[in-house]
Amino acid sequence: MTGISRESGGGAIQFSVLGPVRVWRGGSELLLGPKQQRLILAVLLARAGRPVSMHEFIELLWDGDPPSSATNAVHRYVGALRRLLEPDLPARSPGRWLARQAGGYLLRVDADRLDLLNFRALVDQARQADAAGDPAGSVGLFTTALGLWQGRCAADLEPVSGSHPAFLMLEHEYVSVVCEAADTALRCRRAEAVLLPLRQAAERNPLDEALLARLLLVLASDGKQAEALAMYEEIRLRLQEELSVDPGAELRAAHERILRQRVDTVTPAEAERDGGAGAYGPPVPAGSGPFAAPSVRTARPAQLPPGLPGFTGREDALAQARALAARGGDALRVLAVDGIPGIGKTALAVHFAHQVASDFPDGQLYADLRGFAADGKPTDPADILQGFLDALGVAPQHVPAPPDTRSALYRSVLADRRVLVVLDNARDLAQIRPLLPGTGNCMVIVTSRSRLTALAAAHGAHLLTLDVLSPTEATTAFLERVRTSRPHAGAHEIRPLVERCGRLPLAVATVAARAAAYPERTLHDIDLELSATAHNLDGFSDDNLDNDVRGVFSWSYRALGSQAARLFRLLPLHPGPDVTIAALASMAGISPPEAAQAVGELVRARLLTVRGRHRYWAHDLILAYAAELAVQYETDRPTVRSRMYDHYRQTAHAANLLLRPGPQPAAPASPLPSVTPEPLPDAAAAAAWYTRERAVLRSVVETTAAHGDSRMAWELAVTLQVCQQRMGWWYDRAATMRAALRAARKAEDPVGMARTHHGLAGALHHLGDLPGALGHPEHARHYVGQLHSTADLAHILWNTGLVYHTQGDHLRALRHLEASLDLVSGPEPGRLKATILSGAGMARMQLGDPEVALRLLRTSASMFRDLHDLNGEGLALTVIGQVFRRRRDYAQSASYYERGIEMMRLAGSRGNVAEELTALRDVRLDSRDVAGAQRAWTEALRTLDDPDLPPAVQAREKLAESDTAKQERRTASVI
Predict the structure, then answer these.
(1) Alpha-carbon distances, residue 452 vs 242, 611, 729, 893 (angstroms)
(2) What is the reported pTM?
């Protein structure tokens, strides 16, 4: 931590974020814990004493896909950091360093404690020295400040630290200071002093043309003209290969000055002020351009459009914008707001611009760049510059024709002014770049449907993505718009309407305007109208609006290529809340790389949104617009659906082969042409795929059943039960089996009816419906008898035996299990045989024959071990644990339970893990280990997704009983 004096005594704390995140206490470096904990510390340090909101923490740690426990996790990480920094801090004390503020946290630091603040203090001193006429002293202070950087900000936390705005902004601050140091060094002919930090900065930012221009000039000034010229050629080739662009005006001007040996006569910043090459324009000969004649009259433009009446909500977004506006320094402040069509980007930008307009006394400029206009023709930046220069007081005859020169004049005019620039509906960086001021006096607000990562990389823009309104925000916005015409409207009446709108601001505004215009119609009637048009956008159209919902979506759609447009039209055919590239490839009948390219285009057009790793989501109203187009243009929708259904059936089958190798109950035929199953490398990936696609898979079964595709429905339902049982998704299994059974009955399909009756019986057994669990196997046996399937009959007898075992009729259970065993009595140690032996061992144990029970169970466990079936072996071991519990050998019993539970946990069998943890609880209680019992119950609850499943209900009841007993014991001891 060079440059910060470290105290060695008294436990003094020092922080470093300019490079790897590090902390010292009393001269000893601390271990900072897991990555997520270090990320929280890093962003607190990057904010340097300013608060970080809970929303920012959650976005940082989980990238838009947080768990339900995210807030509690953040609090835990902060608590761990507080204890790390102050190990002697009493419980619940506020502490010296970490403080709660504004719904988040801040870290109290100063320049003596944090290298970032020390860096800024040194930079301020350097600027003061330069202003006082001591450029050489200024260069020395700059180089000391830059020496504090030991790599990128939070360099040990890549890739997050390389893309998150909090860290990117510091990197851009660093680059800005390097450029400023280079300019100062060039003026006082001390180029050699800044060459090393320039090289390091250029290595980290190989496409920053302003930085590279200064590196070229410093090299030449230090006598390394040949290296500078060779480097220019490398840069030119790199820009062409990576970005397909030529060097910008500033690089070209630096190159020209090197060729003319004028590197020490003027710095890049002075060249722009004095009429030479600016950041985007070539040099203008003296006396021949607009810089020669001071023809700028005093003008204060006020071009902001009116703000939206009754604007509400967006407090977090506005807080981020205000923090950026309040930031000091010489770097240009750029706020880039993006989001899907109709999300309210312009409304937010204009509202915020009016809030901060008084901070920019020299005026406000506004332009609609028409990046996604209906005619597909974005506005030429040169035309916008013409209007801006006119508004700023430049006489038309002095506005140059070449775009680069016009842009340079624009920056020169703004150099000493404080102006707010709003660039609405931008398409890309190429359209925005010529319109950026050149100094930190100004601020720019950009809105775009595209996420402007290139603008963040090149100019340090703060990226702000808007989501749909919260339920409260949407309801409040609606009420504000109808308050005059419907003064008695209540939130309870509004909420159904805003949910119909998907809480999309444009849709909310359209429906609210209709409600205000026709007060004689009840809100319930309007809700019914929207419900009647749920699958199209008729309910959100308005002949009096030129930007109704359908029209706004169409602007993005028309800009798509043919492949992306077709993929967009197919989106509504997918039944899930989100979709993968492989699924879309199968639906469209194209390769995954082709689908990935089309998806990228849809994401850039904001018609799809990234939701988690490799998953994509579209707003309901966007899907409704796509459905309208599909009806009009997609005539092969049944074929598309068939490929999609087969995609999920094939992938589920592949997942089952990984989770439970061997013969499968419903192996599908070969994939349909152009169907691409998801690539699943191992069992963990298979289980993760099932978890992500849980809702989609259930929907596919129910949809195919409803559409009469009986075989697809029951085959997929039977395939899914392998994972549903492992995960404890019993309600899902019951629902998919019922849907498939209805379809099989309607199709009079005996195989489908046999399999679904049997599968439904297993689900009902686990849900505690024992009469249903006994009734369905009888129906299944009837159809299996017609099919003459020995294996199916053995399965049904085994399942029936388990139900009788649960009822307590162990003799009848044993008879069914032995009859099942007779049907699979061959020499092969198959999985079904091992499973039946385990069940027979349970029955023998209950009937008082422990020795036979142990022999059967150990044989079963050995068979499962040979089959590499961790779940089956684990279940057999837990039943052996039951035998030892009956013998009152609780230590041995607990040991078998723990081994079995661990095996099932490794197999991903959460449902079985939860049930056996509940049984382990009883063993712990028998041995009077109350704390161990409570741990088992608590873990069982955490394992299950559904709190209404019988094991979860039972565990909660036992926990409550334990708490009550504890309280009674405490009360008795007091008495």
Answers:
(1) 17, 18, 41, 61
(2) 0.58
